[in-house]
Every structure is written in C-alpha cells, then in structure tokens.
Amino acid sequence: MSALLCLALLALSSLTAASDLDCDELVKPSLNQSKVSGRWIFQVGISDTEEQMEFLKSVNSSWMEIQTTPKSEGLNLHFGDRIDGKCMYGTANSSVSGNSTRVTFYYNSTSHEVFGKLLESCPDCAVWSDYKLTEEMGKTKKHRNLYLFTKTGKLDDKNLEVFKKQAECLHFSTDFYFPQTTHLCPDEKDSDEKADEQ
C-alpha cells in the first residue's frame, strides 16, 4: 500500500514539475529584441484591473510601429489607436535593463510609465507583459497587462491557445478583449495629408 502511495505521489509531483516547466517556457522573456522592429497590430489583450479592461474595450483598433535604436538597447515606438471611433496618436521611448524594459508613453499631453518584457511567441507575433504603478488616494496600486500583437492582423487558433496558456501561467482571468484588426487608423502623416486636401 505504501509503495502505491509513493508511486502516486511521485507521479503527481512529476506532473506538477512538468506543468511548472511548461509555464517557465511559456513566460520566458524573448532575448531577440530586434524581432520587434516593424509594424504590429493589436490582436488581443487582458488586464487584471476592471479600470484597465474598460479602457481596453474602448480601443476599437490599434497599431504600433517599433524601431530599434542604433547602438542602444532602447526602442522607439509610434502608435495609432482608434478609440470610440476617433484616431489618437502617440509615441513612446524605452530603455532595456536585463530582461526588463521601461517604456514611457506620451499620449494625450501626458506621460505614462510601464515596466514590462517581451515574451517568446510565434514568429509573426509579439507578446508583451507589463505592469504599471499608480497612486490612488495615497495608495500605490499595481496594474498588470498582457497583449498580443501580430504583423498581419490575423491569428490562428493554435497561437491564440498558446497566448491563453501564457495568460493562465501569469494568473490572468479569461476575460480577453479582441479589438478590430481591420479598421485601423491611417499613419499620422497620411491623416495629415488627407486633412490638408480637404
């Protein structure tokens, strides 16, 4: 009887270790920062706060253009969000320290700072995990987010399942938000040219 109990406990512990290993692999930071250069379309996101989820749900569609900074580990980012039907544009700068990236967003005449990392993902995907500290009524709150971007605006079921598993490993709920991926804001330059023509 005790031999069976030992075998059962050993099997259970090996399953737990295998499960932990899967999560370790799924949330491993990407070491290839150059992979993120180019244009990305926001595909799916989740937050651990109701306020941030409400904001995410106001984003009809979003894209970002990322450029690596020569001779530096930083990135420059330009983005266009369609929020409640209107296009809003912003920029961000980042600095990398080890596996962590500090990003300062400049948006609506204010700046916001988040800390995050790029996770391993499919070849045409970028998975970004971040957190933001805010002061509310004298208390510091931490908000966590997880986003998936694609190069094409399309995501197959297999890669979506991997993202969901990453979210589970990071202890997010299953209340994912899927914005539109086709009705994107034009580049800001194109938008300015159209306004000049009118």
From TrEMBL:
Gene3D superfamilies reported in the protein's UniProt record: 2.40.128.20
The organism's place on the tree of life at top rank: Eukaryota
Record keyword DNA damage present: no
Provenance organism: Oryzias melastigma
Matches recorded under InterPro entries: Calycin
Subcellular location: Secreted
Segment forming the signal sequence: 1-18
SUPFAM superfamilies attached to this UniProt entry: Lipocalins
Protein name from the UniProt record: Apolipoprotein M
Keyword check for Signal: yes
GO cellular component: extracellular region
Annotated keywords: Glycoprotein, Secreted, Signal
